[in-house]
């Protein structure tokens, strides 16, 4: 009972909303501490009860404007009550000084469902007015977890309501990309402080690159790109373009996902040597020996994480050993096919910063669990 309120608040901040509700009934002191702003700074809300008015959320509705970093998960997405609960949480939280928002969904997507209710609710919640602060303070928006197509009008509308955005992630890995280069150009104009971008590869163009190269733009730090089947219809960014981007933004780190729907002959055109590649995911179950050797040659000074879905072979084992010898900065390696013991030894011996890996010498039941060697120095549950 002598624990200071600030310490209690810090502890309570790690609890889910339901757990906070339970803890608030323990005693008067805990109940009073639950209204401390630090408890609600980081809040993860799971809308999964099937009730629009969840009892725990109702009791804490007056405290939701204290949330600064909000993550909402709708599970299952097919239940309209869960979606309405998510919009209610979003509306209340956005009435305060919300700094970051992450929206994700799980479960099967209802037939012919386009996410219209969630997308419209998002726009409404972010409308700024004297009574409703909305998106005026929002600096981070992550929509990678929504399983429906994002329209250009929604993305532009959100950017218009949130001029202080520093991070916008709309690379949500759906089958269709409706956010084209024209929309990206408008977003860049509306949000001059953007330093982290998550896009489909087809959302890039020479005009977008020219905008990013302007001397008055703030430094670009992170670019996430999702490459899928539609990338085969657009010209790839050539190596000299990436060289210019790297020169203009020397701290830029690029994360690439190459989906199995992208034809293999397009892989090499996307993996240009001058890309400052930090994370690479090659999500295909075809042979990737040539691509693995290319990665070892081109990204030995930048690559920190690699994820491979490929087929086993002695040639792949040899390529992975070369990768381990070349890329000493690797922190994570996840290869979803059987490899030899030599591959594991190569990564453990050649990559001093390696903290976890998924490398199996025999098949195991799905899902494969990774091996953790050590806790990363800059790990945090808040990120």
From TrEMBL:
Keyword annotations of the record: Ubl conjugation pathway
Keyword Repeat in annotation: no
InterPro entries xref list: F-box-like_dom_sf, F-box_dom, LRR_dom_sf
F-box domain residues: 1-43
Keyword Nucleotide-binding on entry: no
Pfam family, one: F-box-like
Quaternary structure and partners: Directly interacts with SKP1 and CUL1.
PANTHER family xref list: F-BOX DOMAIN-CONTAINING PROTEIN, PTHR20872
Function: Substrate-recognition component of the SCF (SKP1-CUL1-F-box protein)-type E3 ubiquitin ligase complex.
Protein name: F-box/LRR-repeat protein 8
Lineage, opening ranks: Eukaryota, Metazoa, Chordata, Craniata, Vertebrata
């Amino acid at each position: 009972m002598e624990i200071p309120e600030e310490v209690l608040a810090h502890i309570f901040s790690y609890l889910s909303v339901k757990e906070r509700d339970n803890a608030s009934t323990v005693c008067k002191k805990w109940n009073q501490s639950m209204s401390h702003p630090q408890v609600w700074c980081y809040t993860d809300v799971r809308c999964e009860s099937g009730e629009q008015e969840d009892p725990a959320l109702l009791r804490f509705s007056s405290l939701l404007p204290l949330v600064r970093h909000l993550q909402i998960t709708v599970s299952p997405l097919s239940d309209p009550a869960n979606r309405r609960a998510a919009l209610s949480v979003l509306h209340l939280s956005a009435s305060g000084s919300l700094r970051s928002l992450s929206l994700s969904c799980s479960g099967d997507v209802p037939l012919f469902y386009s996410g219209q209710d969630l997308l419209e609710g998002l726009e409404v919640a972010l409308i700024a007015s004297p009574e409703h602060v909305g998106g005026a303070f929002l600096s981070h928006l992550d929509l990678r977890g929504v399983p429906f197509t994002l329209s250009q009008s929604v993305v532009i509308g959100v950017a218009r309501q949130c001029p202080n955005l520093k991070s916008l992630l709309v690379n949500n890995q759906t089958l269709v990309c409706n956010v084209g280069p024209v929309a990206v150009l408008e977003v860049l104009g509306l949000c001059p402080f953007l330093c982290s971008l998550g896009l489909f590869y087809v959302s890039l163009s020479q005009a977008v690159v020219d905008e990013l190269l302007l001397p008055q733009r703030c430094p670009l730090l992170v670019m996430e790109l999702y490459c899928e089947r539609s990338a085969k219809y657009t010209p790839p960014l050539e190596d000299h373009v990436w060289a210019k981007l790297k020169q203009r933004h020397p701290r830029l780190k690029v994360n690439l996902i190459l989906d199995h729907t992208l034809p293999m002959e397009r892989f090499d055109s996307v993996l240009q040597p001058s890309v400052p590649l930090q994370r690479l995911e090659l999500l295909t179950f075809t042979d990737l020996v040539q691509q693995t050797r290319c990665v070892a040659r081109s990204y030995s000074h930048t690559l920190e994480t690699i994820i491979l879905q490929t087929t086993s072979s002695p040639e792949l084992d040899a390529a992975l050993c070369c990768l381990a010898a070349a890329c000493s900065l690797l922190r994570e390696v996840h290869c979803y096919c059987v490899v030899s013991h030599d591959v594991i030894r190569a990564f453990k011996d050649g990559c001093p910063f390696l903290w976890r890996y998924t490398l199996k010498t025999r098949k195991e039941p799905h899902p494969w669990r990774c091996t953790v060697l050590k806790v990363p120095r800059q790990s945090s549950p808040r990120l």
